[in-house]
Protein: methylmalonyl-CoA mutase
Amino acid sequence: MTDPKDRPLDFDEFPAVSTSAWEQKIKTDLNDGNYRRTLRWHSGEGIAPLPFYRRENLKEIPRHQPIPKILPEDASNEWEIREPVSEASLSEANVSARKALNRGSDALQFHLDVSRLEDAPVRHLTGIPIQCQSDFSTLVNGISLETISLHFDAGLISPALLAMLFNEVHEQELNPQKVRATFNYDPATYLLHNGRYPKKKTLLSEDIVYISRFVTDRAMSGVRPLAIDARSYHNSGATIIQELGFATAAASEYLSILTERNVETTQAGQLLHFNFSAGSNYFLEIAKFRAARLLWKNLVEAYGGVPGQCSASIHAETSQGNKTLYAPYTNMLRTATEGMSAAIAGCNSITIRPFDQHFRKSSDFSQRIARNQQLIFREEAYLDKVADPAAGSYYIECLTDEIGRKAWDIFREVEAEGGLMQAIENGTVQSAIEDSKTKRNQAIARRRRTFVGTNRYTSPEETMHENIDRDNPTVALRQSSDFSIQSSTDDTMQYLADAFARQARLADVIPLLIDSGAPAFPVLEPYRGPRAFEELRLATDKHPTTPTVLMLPLGDKKQRKARSAFASNFFGCLGYRIKSPTGFDSLEEGLKAIEKQKPDIAVLCSSDDAYNTLVPKAGAAISKVDRPPMFVLAGKPGQDKERYEEAGVDEFIYEHCNALKILRRFQKKLRVI
Structure:
């Protein structure tokens, strides 16, 4: 017998199959001549991929190399494992940060935000309570600023933290060129969520320049102080195409401001970084991140820069819009695919949020799982070993190209309107995202978009209202008693550095960064898809009694089983108590069960043919029992709807009905809400 090792490979044994042959096979199997319509995936993300792609599709794409990510020569696809830290005290935050570094993280993400509570005379600080230079020193105590990347998710107060970082580097006599940090300073998203500018547009542009020159003049080459926070678009309901298109427009806005003030394009590009959310559409997300690099390359070239000298710095964070309260452990599965898509696509850093962070203070367990997911990607799945592993995939390459082209079209539309800021003033951005959000809500309400454990495949016995503990502690910002602000200073950043060195407090300098005022433009609110279903379910959890649903499976065993399972799943979304017998031999037997169990809802489950005779009989009989339940039919009534309603049917439930609307009616009729 010939040793297989000695036998040369002969690929002629596997003759090529043409695209036309594949298409003919698909048409035959589907008995449908237009498979491109039948099998096209309407993703809800502004793109509708075909079921398969072939080598010839790549001929239309002018790219034949992997998409580069600038890394050291000995690194292929490395990324930072970034740990979010948002403790309510400085000492706890420092302990949490050091613990994360000792357990596998190699970058830290600090969150803090300033807001004015309703009717409060002073602003309040949420997140890590940094108010002065000594607070900053406490936060980073024992953390090497020359080896650990720091990232400050602090919005419009980021310049204050940048000044504190510079002072700390100076105080410790460190090499500023070795310091690596990013700051989430993005006035566009502030405008989007607050409906007003943080200060006059001319002053805002000057601040952007001051921030940039502060970094470059002090040789802090590893610091990127300006952000394009695309998370704001994603977590407000935007599609992938919109997220990319508006992010590109934001990058163009800041490049324009800087280059018009004589900052060279390549240098300006090195000051910017992107923050994206990673959603659950696995392949589309891989393509999105790859397309982001290509869009950045096009943009830098359009401004006369050299893309290779200012590669896009892309951070990915798991989505907040798709995380569920019920069946919360399913969130770990969602974050796993989201993190994988970001790693495979070549993001520079990744944050995987704990699975429970949206409804309570994350536990050590949830933080450890989030961190270990990335460690598995790196240490066990070896996702850091190959640069752009998706390169050459017919499917992903075509998705990358189509997503990039459509996002560029949005960017051009925004530019034609006068740029992103003008488009936000006009309400164009908000209107587009609100339209996308409405479509998402419709898909969720009709359960075309599934959230396991929330609008399908629920566990009715699960209760969560006692597990919710999301009250974010706030700290009132207090001004120093002996410090006066000089709001007319020419260089904002130099003033901030000097002020904090003289022990100024954050409240002293807030007026220099953010003006007070009422919204002048439409605003976007944070969005989480499952929330509407969860609110109905929480009402049941908190209600003193739980409504009971009794299935009435009659007739054809296959049909009654399927519809009984469907109805159980349907009412499980409300956390009702489900009684689902295998079946009844007669309607009379089912009526006896109603008399005995006294359910709030009775659901008739049978075949469409049987309903013609069953519905009138059941409706008449149920109306005569002591304390008659609501009478529900499992199945789409079609032209018989009025006849069945006259027979006593209160509601119809069927696949792709507006489940949210119908469930809300049940909650109201049963006085749960």
